[in-house]
Amino acid sequence: MSCPDSLPEHVLSLLKTSKYLHLATCSKPECIPSLSLMNYTYISPDRVYAPEGTEHSSTDKCHYIIMATQRNTEKYENIIQNPQVSVLIHDWVTAKKLSLRKSSMSNTPTPSEPVQAEPAQTQNPDHPSRLLNLLQELNQSELSQMSATLRGHAEHLDASSDEFNYYEQELLKQNPDARVYTRGENVSVVKVKLVNAKVSDRDNNTKFYD
């Protein structure tokens, strides 16, 4: 299965900096979809696992995503039956900043604090509230950011292999919060080889990378 010839720098930056993604799997033959929020780490071509004593192959230009899951989950069973998966990543940086603004705006006066009425000339029943303005701004900022849908081929790694240990450590190094998903003997490390990408913005400008 081929890899994209290249991925745009803004997609690579998003893959490197984001903490979560949405993983879509589908059962077979029922074709029942499932969606999960996942911790992950991105593996660039220069960080792909190479067995000890061998050099990294310069021909391996593929990009990978590493995740961990328990084996008694729906997503695990789906991947076993159907390794075709999709992931969605989104730039939430602006939305986070607006969320902080919302928190600061929610501090309403206490009963002991006098509330001054707005001047009559500024009172307008049709004027939206500050919260409504914030929500509108939040919606627009979310849409203005780039979203990327990446399709890939998922593989469960052998828990006794050096490759499993290598990618588990890479996952925890980049994302320590994922440690809770790597505990116990029922853990599966999933390697997703990215096959293509679809990138969209708020103006519905869409580009495909194969």
TrEMBL record:
Ranges in coiled-coil conformation: none
SUPFAM superfamilies tied to this protein: FMN-binding split barrel
Region (Disordered): 103-126
Classification via InterPro entries: PMP_oxidase-like (IPR052841), Pyridox_Oxase_N (IPR011576), Split_barrel_FMN-bd (IPR012349)
UniProt domain Pyridoxamine 5'-phosphate oxidase N-terminal: residue ranges: 7-101
Pfam families, A to Z: PNPOx_N
GO annotation, cellular component aspect: cytoplasm; nucleus
Record's protein name: LANO_0H00650g1_1
